[in-house]
Amino acid sequence: MLKVSAIETYYGASQVLFGMSLEVGAGEVVTLLGRNGMGKTTTLHSIMGIVPVRAGRVDFAGHALAGLPSHKIARHGIGLVPEGRQVFPNLTVKENLIATAANRHGHDDPWTLERVFDMFPALSGRRSQMGNLLSGGEQQMLAISRALMTNPRLLVLDEATEGLAPMVRRDIWASLKRIKDEGVSILIVDKNITDLTRIADRHYIMEKGAVVWEGTSATLARSKKIQHKYLGV
User: Fold this and answer.
1) Element holding 56 (H helix, E strand)
2) Which residues are CB-contacts of 97 (< 8 A; sequence separation ≥ 6)?
């Protein structure tokens, strides 16, 4: 579904990605791992058109994305849950959800207000509250729900559970498992290896702007050497 082929991305004169490549198949959950500053967020931003790709290709469901503006990339069926949540602070929960709601690809059972409130009951009772009055965990639930309301074929999450309480993280992982079971592909950046290996099919580890390891959850879970070499602090 998604194929990133040898992309190079810069911030000004500084090169950040050096031939970065990855793939996400239909219905797969794939992670992007690595220490801070290795290019994970830049990879997601390159896919989404937030930063321009200078070389290489980004293809999604038969469409070339490199060079397209972000809103057109989103309309192809990619929903982004950005780092820091970035909910609209002066809109209510309901307004946040309906602001970009669409079913452009004609899903038979689209994500609706009722479905996202069923998945995140904590949001249902706060539907009239402003986004900036929610807790961090509630804002993350809202950010995920907002992306789902676009009815994406691929959900992209940057730091899915960073800074959240353990019980909230548990709810987020359960929701992602449910989303996977719905057939939505997921590309996720996070640091919780144990939780990631329970839900993900494959993993890519980045170092200095390129992939240095890729493999399955079973392989990563039992390879403490790989975890220590590339992910340890």
Assistant:
1) strand 53-60
2) 113, 116, 142, 145, 146, 149
The residue count of the chain comes to 233
Are 50 and 39 in contact by the 8 Å Cβ rule? The answer is no
Q: Residues 49-101: pLDDT tens digits?
A: 999 999 999 999 999 999 999 999 999 999 999 998 999 999 999 999 999 89
Closest by CA to 208, choosing from 183, 175, 230, 176, is: 230
Nearest to 49 by CA among 71, 32, 16: 71
Name the pTM for this structure.
0.94
Tokens representing residue 83 in the block: 């780092």
Q: What is the CATH number of domain 2-231?
A: 3.40.50.300
Residue 19 near residue 25, CB atoms below 8 Å: no
- Which H or E run contains 8? strand 2-11
Among 229, 231, 165, 225, which residue's Cα sits nearest to residue 196?
Answer: 231
